[in-house]
Amino acid sequence: MAGNLGQGINPLVIQQIAQDVAETHKSGVQIGLVIGGGNIFRGVSASAQGMDRASSDYMGMLATVINALALQDALEKEGVPTRVQSAIAMAEIAEPYIRRKAIRHLEKGRIVIFGAGTGNPFFTTDTAASLRAMEINAEIIMKATKVDGIYDKDPAKHSDAVKFDKISYIDVLNRGLQVMDSTAISLCMDHKLPILTFDLMKKGNILKAVTGEKIGTLVH
Ligand code: GTP
């Protein structure tokens, strides 16, 4: 969301994401979005610097709601109807998270943006995404990120890093690959929910991912 600004919200980045999501939505798939808040506040880093972990996680959850509202605005500018649901009650700003209502919104062709993580500290956005995916009976969870897939070692540091096309959940856990945190991976593994990770910033990638083109890495 920050793009080259480093932090905050870069309008060009959010517009590109919204255009890609809107194009994908036109193909008729139902989409739920879960967004993090690291561009505004990173709970884990703050707690590493001595802040109480629960407090910093709550601040991070609030940051995700700011991003959710920004994304809603950008998506609606692209003509996509959206609803934001928050795991932390803030009725003046967003609907509360209600599972059955979220599913109904999806059936009516709206994109649902899930904000405020799981509503609990100590759980990451990845875990929130895995949980929501299972709750809405999603077929797949797609982690759109800065890297174009999963490598055996950090591709930024090692030129001989090899990308996986597919990898099992247990391999991800055993090799300690930084795809999603272990709680999120375990949750997906237990419920056989496939995870596709791919590069968000390449235009058209979301549609490619949804239509089954070979991009990124599939964890299954
Ligand atoms: P259906 O009528 O069931 O198709 O869904 P709907 O979302 O259009 O109807 P609803 O009357 O629930 O919502 C109308 C608008 O109010 C939508 O933009 C909702 O996102 C918003 N809304 C609904 N409940 C809340 C809430 O508790 N807080 C906030 N801030 N907005 C809400």
What is the CATH level 1 assignment of the largest domain? Alpha Beta
Largest sheet: 4 strands, parallel
Number of helices: 8
The CATH architecture of the largest domain can be named as 3-Layer(aba) Sandwich
The overall number of domains is 2
Instruction: Indicate the low-confidence ranges by residue numbers.
Output: none
Structural class: alpha/beta
Tell me the series of helices and strands, N- to C-terminal.
HEHHEEHEHEEEEHHEHE
Mean pLDDT rating: 95
Give the termini separation: 28 Å
What would you report as the Rg, rounded to the nearest angstrom?
A: 17 Å
Small-molecule binders here are: guanosine-5'-triphosphate
The main sheet orders its strands as: 1-4-2-3
- Helicity level, as a percent range? 40-55%
Features:
220 residues; alpha/beta; Carbamate kinase; four-stranded parallel sheet; 15% strand; globular; binds guanosine-5'-triphosphate
Describe the structure.
The protein is of the alpha/beta class. Helix 1 packs across helix 3 and helix 5 (125-135) packs parallel to helix 7 (182-190). The chain is globular and about 50 Å long. It folds into two domains: 1-138, Carbamate kinase (3-Layer(aba) Sandwich), CATH 3.40.1160; 139-220, 3-Layer(aba) Sandwich (Carbamate kinase). Helix content is 40%, strand content 15%. Guanosine-5'-triphosphate is lined by residues 83, 91-96, 104, 108.
